[in-house]
Write a structure and sequence with these properties.
The chain has about 50 residues and is mainly β. Helices cover about 0% and strands about 60% of the residues. The chain has a 4-stranded antiparallel beta sheet with strand order 1-2-3-4, with no helix packed on it.
């Protein structure tokens, strides 16, 4: 289930809303990962623990 998150695109150098999937990193943090809607670069946003 893809949801909309706000993240920073390193390539565009702007904050953008992107559609992403929630995954858990190796260190146990939840993060939303998805492509930038403008340039297609992978974006991610670290979410809270709850």
């Amino acid at each position: 289930m893809a949801e909309t998150y706000n993240g920073y695109c390193v390539k565009c150098k702007e904050k953008r809303d992107f559609e992403g999937e929630v995954s858990v990193s190796d260190s146990g943090r939840r993060m939303a990962k998805g492509p930038c809607p403008v340039c297609g670069t992978k974006m991610n946003r670290i979410l809270g623990k709850a």
